[in-house]
Specification:
heterodimer, A: mainly alpha, 12 helices, flat, B: 7-stranded mixed sheet, 4-stranded mixed sheet, globular
Chain lengths: 308, 560
């Protein structure tokens, strides 16, 4: 197992280089630059000076090496779009926000979705099951930007129970609507997976034995069935973590949350090259490491899985 | 089960902690701003007297920079115009000059040397007096070739400035000198009767060299920032909010709000929702909400179409002999059949006004008689004259470039509406080339020395003088995308720049407009305006008429 982990960690390096190279090429091949001319006309000489200031006139291989060398030392360069901060500061500001909302949303999804799935499975084909399934499908199929706007209009604009937008930290009224919005798709997924997995497990022979032994229903479910039913759910959860911490551009835009999801998409639209590069690299690190954690936890949970 | 569950929980926690640690490790500077600013907040919040007036403002986009020399954005001007005072201001209703940094000025006989006598009562927000050296430093920094500021073209009329900011000439040759603490001398490259209006621009403001040199990275943010304007910045949370309060050392009494809290939104829809929820007191109304706002009994009273001095137009390549638009009759025909009212209503939902002339109608020097008159008949006759009767013989591949945003002034909605009108009324095919926003910005900038057919662009006033349109935008002063040059026109607008009286200037401009509106290197379609909504208790004339940014010191806050 240890050798497996070490090998995976070492493989991260060529993976990063490949991602960096691909992103670098894509960014420099995309038409359009960071400067907006329609607001104020820029003389051609000024554009040249701006390019020189940001080293965009250097030959591409030099830019490739310079940026990588800087990034390795923690200097991700200046942001073209957010000019009072360095790219590192932008990411350091945005990442925790997306992370907190994403993880809180996921936590909520587990707390709501898993019990929903269990109830659906136990009361299979009852009205509770149908309602839960219906809600899951709706939750999964509705895009987050629709849910977000609907929530804002109903709960913030009309009922005025919550503020419409902004960020005051995770434990404030402003965080409630975004966290709930983020959690909806994950809740639906958890509910569906838990239900399916529970239904599978509930038909197993060893449960029949347990019941035959005289065990009451509750310990049958919670002590025996659940721990096996949850294995696929944990896998899904691991995959969802990687998705949710990236931050949803739509949710962050609608709720005016200055998170990584917003900054990253906006950096591409604004051609903020250092931020695009750094954002891609940071996401890659996090995603690859998290994938590793998920894979390892899968091995820990299921003794049948072995890594070499 | 518990061991595995624990393992998972621990793994999750480790990832969270790791992410937080990385964040904390690389943000010492970010935290400093917020912590310092938080201290500042406690200090100033406690000092608020009872009944202090508060206005909650909103930006429909995140700010780019608070560095006055680097800023080009009208949203940041809502703050910068209030934190820094230029030499003069203009009364929005009477167009009179109002003293701000300067109380008076002299102009030399030859019209080249302007001597400004500064206000001895003017103070920075830290109490220090505002000096001519501060103004000189602010202007020179705008032109600093190392900074490569986009607004450096604002210095173009000053001797030696263009060479300086393009890196070709030394700072010592620039005609900006502080003769003493209260006298600033500016030497122009040629006489310009309107030049005093240019000194009302946001960038004609002083900056503090000592503060900038002491804090090269964050001089523009609290607690370091100092301003000489009616307000100063007391709190800033990056990309979230900013607070500005009345400058206690400002020399002039005004009735503006004591405190303005600004929230930054990521888009205009979010800002407008906050307005509707009562969380902010001002917002820009997104196009698709305009009809609903106008129909609502409360909001229709709060809605204002804030005028700007700006025109959106179609730029033609007048020298492209491969294109039909090089013939002025074609340009006139294309312009005559545009249904400008329909365009303003359909694409902009009434948030723009139809433009039949190249000069905004709220600027003097406007000539209502200029330009080709007529309707469909005349247009068809012109097109036939030019060799394309009923559109026959019209070449393939004539294109109209725009950006890809539907309700943008230079966007796809307008482009498709125009080509639709041309097809329907003249029988000609023009292809819409709608490029992604940044790509289209880069594309049209490249047209300065390329051939093209047509694209959508416009011009917004830098200062309220017709020279900014007739000479700067339409004449040969800036790179001319239309590649149009007319000697008689240039002669007229140059003469108008130096003519001694306003009547003479106006007459010359009107004569010049007869030429440019006949030749039509650009065909106007709408006048710029800002559809804004704000509370009825925010009274006074506080929205600047050139770019619709806020001058809070002009606002009168009624009890509410």
């Amino acid at each position: 197992m240890l050798r497996y982990i070490l090998r995976r960690l070492l493989l991260l390096i060529p993976t990063f280089l490949a991602i960096y190279t691909l992103t670098f090429l894509l960014v420099h091949a995309t038409p359009g630059g960071p400067w907006n001319y329609s607001a104020r006309p820029l003389r051609p000489e000024m554009i040249e000076r701006l390019k020189e200031k940001y080293h965009l006139n250097d030959p591409l291989p030099k830019q490739y090496v310079d940026y990588l060398w800087g990034a390795v030392q923690g200097d991700f360069g200046p942001s073209y779009r957010h000019q009072e901060r360095t790219v590192a500061q932008v990411i350091a500001g945005g990442f925790p926000i997306s992370l907190q909302i994403g993880l809180a949303g996921l936590g909520l999804a587990v707390v709501l979705g898993v019990p929903l799935g269990i109830i659906s499975a136990i009361r299979h084909n009852s009205w509770m099951d149908y309602v839960a399934t219906f809600l899951s499908v709706v939750g999964f199929a509705t895009p987050p930007y629709v849910t977000a706007v609907v929530f804002v209009v109903i709960f913030a604009l009309t009922l005025k129970w919550f503020p419409t937008s902004g960020w005051d930290g995770l434990f404030s009224t402003k965080a409630i609507l975004p966290v709930v919005t983020i959690s909806i798709v994950s809740t639906a997924l958890f509910a569906r997976y838990t239900r399916a997995s529970m239904l599978d497990v509930l038909g197993e022979d060893y449960l029949r034995t347990a019941r035959a032994k005289g065990l009451r229903e509750r310990p049958v479910i919670f002590r025996h069935a659940l721990r096996n039913a949850l294995i696929p759910v944990v896998t899904v959860g691991g995959l969802l973590v990687t998705e949710t911490i990236m931050g949803s551009f739509f949710v962050e835009t609608i709720f005016a949350l200055p998170g990584m999801g917003y900054y990253y998409v906006e950096s591409v639209m604004a051609r903020d090259i250092p931020l695009i590069m750094a954002g891609t690299l940071v996401y890659s690190v996090v995603l690859l490491l998290l994938n590793l954690v998920v894979d390892i936890s899968y091995a820990v949970l299921d003794p049948r899985v072995r890594y070499h | 089960m518990s061991k595995k569950m624990w393992f998972l929980l621990v793994a999750l926690l480790i990832s969270m902690v790791a992410a937080q640690c990385t964040g904390a490790a690389i943000t010492p500077a970010l935290e400093k701003v917020v912590t310092e600013a938080a201290k500042e907040e406690l200090k100033t919040e406690a000092a608020q007297p009872e009944g202090a007036t508060l206005v909650r403002f909103a930006f429909p986009a995140l700010p780019v920079t608070w560095d006055l020399s680097l800023s080009t954005g009208s949203y940041e001007y809502h703050v910068l115009r209030n934190v820094y005072d230029p030499l003069y201001d203009v009364d929005f209703t009477t167009q009179e000059l109002l003293p701000r940094g300067a109380v008076s000025h002299d102009v030399s006989e030859d019209g080249l040397v302007y001597t400004f006598h500064l206000n001895p009562d003017a103070r920075w927000s830290d109490g220090k007096p505002v000096t001519a050296q501060d103004y000189a430093y602010g202007l020179m920094r705008l032109g600093d070739p190392q900074l490569a500021a986009a607004m450096s073209y604002g210095l173009d009329y000053i001797k030696g400035a263009t060479d300086y900011y393009t890196g070709k000439g030394p700072a010592s040759e620039v005609g900006i000198k502080a003769l003493d603490d209260l006298t600033l001398e500016i030497t122009l490259v040629k006489p310009a009767a309107f030049y005093i209006m240019a000194t009302t621009a946001v960038w004609f403001s002083p900056l503090r060299q000592d503060v900038i040199e002491a804090h090269p990275d964050d001089w523009m943010l609290p607690p370091n920032v100092v301003g000489n304007g009616p307000y100063y910045i007391t709190r800033y949370v990056p990309d979230q909010s900013m607070v500005i309060e009345k400058n206690p050392h400002y020399w002039r009494e005004h009735q503006g709000p004591d405190k303005v809290e600004i929230t930054f939104f990521t888009d205009s829809a979010g800002a407008f929702r906050a307005y509707e929820a009562g969380e902010v007191d001002y917002a820009v109304v997104p196009t698709d909400n305009i009809e609903r706002v106008k129909a609502d009994p409360q909001m229709s009273q709060e809605f204002h179409l804030a005028p700007q001095m700006g025109v959106s137009w179609i730029v033609f390549d007048t020298t492209n002999t491969d294109s039909p638009v090089s013939d002025k009759r074609v340009r006139q025909a294309l312009s005559l059949v545009i249904d400008r009212e329909g365009l303003a209503q359909a694409i902009f939902k009434g948030s723009r006004r139809p433009a039949y002339h190249l000069i905004p109608d709220n600027l003097w020097g406007y000539n209502p008689d200029a330009g080709v008159k007529g309707g469909l008949e005349e247009a068809r006759a012109l097109l036939a004259d030019a060799g394309y009767p009923n559109g026959e013989g019209w070449p393939e591949g004539v294109s109209l470039h725009s950006n890809n945003i539907l309700d943008d002034d230079f966007g796809k909605g307008v482009a498709e509406a125009l080509t639709g009108m041309w097809k329907e009324k003249l029988g000609i095919d023009v292809q819409v080339e709608a490029l992604e926003y940044q790509a289209s910005e880069q594309w049209w900038q490249a047209q300065v020395d390329q051939h093209f057919h047509m694209f959508l662009l416009g011009w917004s006033a830098d200062y309220a003088d017709p020279a900014n349109f007739y000479y700067d935008a339409l004449g040969s002063f800036y790179p001319q995308y239309s590649h149009w040059k007319n000697e008689k026109y240039t002669e007229l607008v140059v003469d108008a720049s130096v003519a001694p009286s306003r009547q003479e200037r106006e007459a010359l401009y009107k004569e010049a407009s007869l030429i440019v509106e006949d030749e039509l290197p650009e065909a106007p379609y709408v006048y710029r305006a800002s559809p804004v909504i704000y509370r009825t208790w925010m009274e006074g004339s506080w929205l600047d008429p050139t770019l619709a940014f806020a001058e809070f010191s002009n606002m009168i806050v009624k009890p509410h």
